[in-house]
Amino acid sequence: MNPHLAALVGTVPPGSAVTLAVARPGGGEVLCHGRTAGDSGEPVTPDTGFELGSVSKTFTALLLAELAARGEVRLRDTVTVSGVPLSLLHLATHTSGLPRVPPGLRRSALPAWFSNPYAAFSAEELDRALERTRLRFPPGSRVQYSNFGVGLLGRVLAERSGGGYPGLLAERVAGPLGLTGTGCEPGAAVGYFRGRALPPWRIPALPGAGAVRSSGRDLLRYLTLHLDPGGAPTPGLAAALRDVQRPRLVKPRSADRLCLVWNLRPLPDGDVLFHSGGTRGFTAFVGFCPRRGTALAALTNSGPRFNSRFIQTGYRVFRGL
What we know:
Oligomer: single chain
Enzyme class: hydrolase
Number of strands: 16
Structural class: alpha+beta
InterPro entries: AmpC-like (IPR050491), Beta-lactam-related (IPR001466), Beta-lactam/transpept-like (IPR012338), Beta-lactam_class-C_AS (IPR001586)
CATH architecture: 3-Layer(aba) Sandwich
Shape: globular
Protein name: Beta-lactamase
Distance between the termini: 17 Å
GO molecular function: beta-lactamase activity
Number of helices: 11
Strand content: 15-25%
Organism: Kitasatospora cheerisanensis KCTC 2395
């Protein structure tokens, strides 16, 4: 087994599936281990779909940048919450002041907290939540990670484009970039939490925060295009791929920057951009370094655990490329 793949397999429970997509200046490869459903199911392939959790937010950022490149939205455009205007840039940089999740979500999630906490929270409930939301701080004054914020961004972009988030993702990103296995429909792999198989992750009210599924093959292409935006099929997407990488602010008490969703870490051998994610049954890490021409996506159908080392190992493997 490839040593990088073996390092990741060693961090997850026995029987877990792992996909590793690696890009280097000389080319890329996708390595797979395990089956789609524990010891049963089909062998995992480069086209097997995994839930991405918060890595979905990078797709929402790309949608924002693509619509902005076309002049259909502006980063300073606003949506009003509790009488306060929040810019799309606030939503994309976790500086909106919105709480991590909408009010009322935890109550609706209780029956399915360990399997699918967002499933019962509908778009109508999100409307009601927006009416009673109170900001935690003035927009732009602090950084506080918010699923609510990026999920609301995805909703705003979809509404301004006249459709839903899955359709917008397919039309503006997945289709043009040739990401045939990327979307919001369940993938082939079954997610597991503490050895228990889970139903597909659903997040109907906030898909832009965590509903995207993708495969190792698609993520290899996705990250390769971030390394070389000139390979994008349209000028708008090329501009968007560059724009999501532009630092917007410095994180407090850190040298790290925030771009549009992406975290950027300045390092002597080249800035690295990265994001991680998880649903109850899946964990994901993606990262790329434009100067070195390297990128990595690591996926598993094992949900995040308190002592899990999957994301940290993914970052370490990425830095060692």
